[in-house]
Amino acid sequence: MHYVILGTAGHIDHGKSALVKALTGIDPDRLKEEKERGITIDLGFADLQYPEHSLTVGIVDVPGHERLVRNMLAGAGGIDMVLLVIAADEGIMPQTKEHLYICDLLNIKAGIIAITKTDLVQPEWLQLVKDEVRDFVKGTFLESSEILPVSSKTGYNLNLLKEKIKESALKVKPKPTKGLFRLPIDRVFTLKGFGTVVTGTALSGSISIEDTVELLPSCLNSKARGIQSHGKPVKTAYAGQRVAINLQGIDKTELKRGDTLVEPNRFIPTTLIDVSLELLKDAPLVKNRALFHFHTGTSETIARCILYGREELSSGQSCYCQMRLDDPVVVQSGDRYILRRSSPQITIGGGEILDTSPLKRKKKEGIEDLRVFEHGSLHEKIALKIKKAGGGGMKKTAIEGWIKAEIPSISDSISSLKEQGRLIRFEDILMHKDAFNSYKTSLIKRLTDFHKSNPLKQGMPKEEVRAFLRLDIKIFNISISLIDEIQAEKDSISLKGFSIEVSPEDKKIVLDALDKGQFLPPFKADLASMLSVDEKKVGDILKHLERQGVIVRINDSLYLSQSSYQKMIDLLKKFFREKPEMTVAEFRDLLGTTRKYAVPFLEYLDSNKITLRVGDIRKSLLK
To answer: By the 8 A CB rule, do 423 and 431 touch?
Structure first.
C-alpha cells in the first residue's frame, strides 16, 4: 500500500471542510461548536481511497482563522502534499498567504490549488482570480501546480480534482517505513469499554498490536491494545497512515496534544536544538535572544533564539541558530519547524532541525559543522555526529534516534565508515578515529610525563588513566589493547618498552640488608635511612624488586628476601610434619624472631592460605 497525507490550507470560510466532505463523503468538522458556527476550529480528518492503485490519501482538514493557526500547525507537520483552497468570491486573503508560507517552510513539495465556490461568480471574474493565484504562487513549491475551479455545491470538477490528487499522491516519496516508529499525538480521547485512544500521523516506522511503546516527554510505557487506520481495524500500521491507537494502562489525563508515541529507548526529549532559520520576506527584524513560539510536529513551546555569528536577522535572511526551549520536544535531525511571534500573532519563519543534542559553542564556533548537518550526505552527518561525541562515542541506537533516516540506511553508512577506518566499534559503542587518535595522543603524553616524574613506578594506575581520559570503562578496557605504543598490566599502564631502572648499588644494599636481617629484616623506613632517600622512593624500589621475584611483600612496610621466605616455608613444613597445630610463640621461636615480626608474617601466611587461623593457633594448609 501507498499512504499519503494531504492537508488543506486556506483562509477561514473558503470552503475547505465543505470540499473535503464533497470529495470523501466524510464531514471533518467533528465538534458540536464547529457544526453550530459553520467553521473549523480544530483538526478534522477524512480519507480518499484509490483501490486500483493500492493508494490511501489521508486528509487533515485544518482551521483557517488567524487565531487558530496553532491548531493548523499541529496538523501540518505530517502532511506530504497540500490542497490550497481559495474562494472564488474573495480571492487571496491573509490566511491564504500565511498557510502557504507555512507549507513552504515545512518543505512540502507537492500540492494542488482548488478555487472553490465557483458557482457564486461569473466566468470573467473566475479568470481574474485564477490569474491572481498564478502570480501569487510564483517562486513557491506550488508555482507549477494545477489550478482547478471547483464547486462543492454543484459537484463541478470534483471527479477531476480526485484524479489530480491521485496523480500527485502517487509521485510523493513515501515516508520511511523502515525507520523508528514515531507518532506525534494530535488527539487524545476515551472510548467506553476501550480506554484511552491517541491519534496522529505516523511519521516513520510501523506499529503492531501488542507492541510496547513509550510516551514522551512523560516517559510512560504502554502497549498497543488495538490499532485503527482510516476507520478500519488493522494489525499493523505504517508510516504515512493516519493512526488511532488504544493504549493499555494509560489515563487520558496523562497525555496531551504535542506528546509523542515512539519505539522505546530510542528517543531523548530535548530542550536544546541547533537549527537553520529562514525569515519570511515580510517578517520583522529578529534580535538575538528574542522569544518566539516554536512549533514542530504537533507540539508548541516557547523558544529563546540564539543567533550564531550575529546580533540580528532581517526579513528574507537566513542563518544558523540555537533554540533553547521551555518544554522538551521529541525531534530528529532533518525535521522541520515553524517560528511565530506572539504579538501580533504572525508566522515569521522556520527551517530545519540540524542537531538535537548540540555541544555548547560560542557564537561563531561550529558553523561548518551545521553546514554538514544541513547539506551533507548521511555518511557525512553520522561521521561528524560521532566525532563530536568525542571519547565517549555513541551507541548505534542513539544515532538511530538522532537522525531521520531508515534503519538499514543508517546501518549501511556505519558499516561503510568502519570499512574506511573512520569509525571504531567498542561492542555497542562507536567512536570516530579522530577522537580515538586524539585521546591516544593525550594518553601517550600523559604517560611520558608520568615516567619522567616517577622513574621508579612501573606505570600509571589504570583507574587514574581512565579518569584522566574520561572514558566509559567498556571503551577504556577495549581501546588500551588497540594502542601499540603502550603496555597494560593488571593495575597499571606504561609506555611500551619502559622499565624501572634501579641502580646496582641501591639494589645490592636492599637485598643485602634483607638477607642479613633474615627474619628480623629492616622495615621500609629503615631502608630509606640506609639509602638516604625518602620512603616513597624506597617503596618504589621494593615494588620493583617484588615484581622481579627477588623479594616477597609481607605488607606495605615489611619485605623478606626470597631466600628467607623459602626458608620460612621449609621450617613450617618440617614443624607441621611433627605437630598439627602451632601457637604464635612457637612460630616466633621457630624463626628466631620477635612477636613484632611474627604477627605480620602469620597474617601474610593466613591471607595466602598457607596457614589457617583457628582461635589463637594455626593449622597447616600446605600441600
So the answer is: yes
